[in-house]
Design goal:
159 residues; alpha/beta; 4-stranded parallel beta sheet; two-stranded antiparallel sheet
Length: 159
Amino acid sequence: MDTLSYRTQSATPATIEKEWVVIDAEGQVLGRLCSKVAKILRGKNKPDFTPFMDCGDNVIIINADKVVMSNGKMDKREYLRYTGYPGGQRVFTPGDLMEKSFKKTIKAGKHPLFIKVLKGMLPKGPLGRALINNMYVYNGPEHPHAANNPKVIDINKMK
């Protein structure tokens, strides 16, 4: 029996084909939307998925300001952060992060709420930090990535 015929094929940087996709977040539940976006960012929806490579697509999320959270979690849920100094525990809610996304000081395409939620769903380490940079989130329906010819994906039909 030929053992070379059973070799696992892994994706290489030369064989990876990255696409641009647009996802409309209007009326979507935040956690369910982000779990599907994490699969796309990671590349788990492709047949040539390789766990240690960045083989996912670039994702553009529009209408992020119309995302919903059930049971008033936008104001009830609390995230904690610690500065490292005595008395340095900071508490913020998803509503606070949503308000922060409308400020001019936030870099375009970097939505603090989506980054907070998706960082927990991606691998920790250098690969996860590289994958989070493939996501661009905008509060309105417009985005500046039209030159990349992104295709629109209906997130409700994705498993």
